[in-house]
Amino acid sequence: MPLIELTGVSRHYAIAGNTVRAINDVYLSIDVGQYVAIVGSSGSGKSTLLHLIGCIDTPSVGEYILNGQRVSALDEPQLARIRNQRIGFVFQNYQLLPQLSALENVMQPLVYRRTSGGERRRPALAALATVGLAHRADHHPAQLSGGERQRVAIARALVGRPSVILADEPTGNLDTAATLQVMRLFDALHRQGQTVLIVTHEPNLTARCQRTVELADGRIVRDEG
To answer: Least C-beta-crowded within 10 Å: which of 11, 84, 93, 197?
Structure first.
């Protein structure tokens, strides 16, 4: 059974009396452990597709099954639980809470699960160790470099042991050295069996993925790997 399966999925928006077809009749199947780059020009539908897969948005038409569950039919509280328990998000602008330390930011998904304090700290420290930042646990985002902030964001995505990690332009704000660190980290997660989907404009990052899905005008026009 695929981990992710989209069947005839479309997402349409009504804007100023017009219908914008952001995603149009997409069929996509992704197995456990795949390392997938989602590419395409600006406005092609990449981020919309990632938001649909991440249950941030819902299809206008079609069916989405995640790990055997038909999530396209769930209500918002149910989708929130799916996002918290099965999906790890990594965003271009990190989305860390500035008033919290690195450790406290990583613990946030477990806070929302109402996990006790002691049970939150251990896995959060382990996640920071995975990204090489256990020694920076008590530092706040303002005290970290861009690359370190993104690695904290990846640790936060990992801490809940998600079924899939979704990364939207994760190296877009990073310099060359930090980009390489983040790319190597995603490579390592893939080798460990983690399913990873990355929206990217970076050819170097795309080349590291085992599969490339290209969108144009809301449709998949290429699927290789």
So the answer is: 93
pLDDT tens digits along 31-54: 999 999 999 999 999 999 999 999
Q: Give yes or no for a contact between 210 and 35, defined as CB atoms under 8 angstroms apart.
A: yes
CA 25 vs. chain centroid, Å, equals: 22
Q: Tell me, what amino acid is at 219?
A: R
In 131-191, which ranges are continuous DSSP H helix?
146-158, 176-191
Angstrom distance (rounded) from CA 41 to CA 24: 16
CA distances from 17 to 13, 20, 24, 43, 218 (A): 10, 10, 19, 19, 19
- The amino acid at residue 183 is M
Residues 7, 29: Cα–Cα separation, whole Å = 9
pLDDT score of 96 more than 90: yes
Describe the crossing of helices 176-191 and 146-158 by its angle, rounded to 10 degrees: 20
Tokens, residue 27: 């069929």
Under a CB-based contact definition with an 8 Å cutoff, are residues 158 and 127 in contact? yes
d(CA 75, CA 97): 27
pLDDT tens per residue across span 147-173? 999 999 999 999 999 999 999 999 999
Burial of 106 (0-12, 13-18, 19+ CB in 10 A): buried
Answer yes or no: are the C-beta atoms of 5 and 28 closer than 8 Å.
yes
Dist. CA 123–CA 130, nearest whole Å: 10
